[in-house]
Amino acid sequence: MRAHSTGRPVPSPTRRRVAALIAAAVTVAAGLLVHRALPDSAASDIAGDALYALLVYALAVGVAPRARVGVVAAAAIGWCVAVELLQLTGIPERAGAVFPPAMLVLGTAFDPRDLAVYAVTVVAAAGADAAQRSIRSRFTARRPR
Which of 20, 28, 43, 102 has its CA 20 to 30 A from that of 11? Predict the structure, then answer.
């Protein structure tokens, strides 16, 4: 493990990328389960939105594993907000009519509650990511060489 300019070890980007991509795969499976198995309700809608935001966060880490947690969180929330605002145009709904899986990525109708769910989920994901990185760097710093 390399050392940061502060002397703290820097986690391996490959390890972080692999962990993020595994998390993304598990999140997709959970999202499909929610979509297929649960009745259409406010709770399943919120669960789906939270899983979507978590997926976006994990994919952002997968794309840029060296990025700081705050940068990843900003990118994830930016994507989620952009997709939600795109729903105001009707484009996602028309795309879903032509290719139904597009609705899983782009949604269909704007809901301001979704913005709150995205924000809470991304903040929680970023907090967990930062905690994991901190714990890992402390463990690695104490390990004898």
Answer: 28
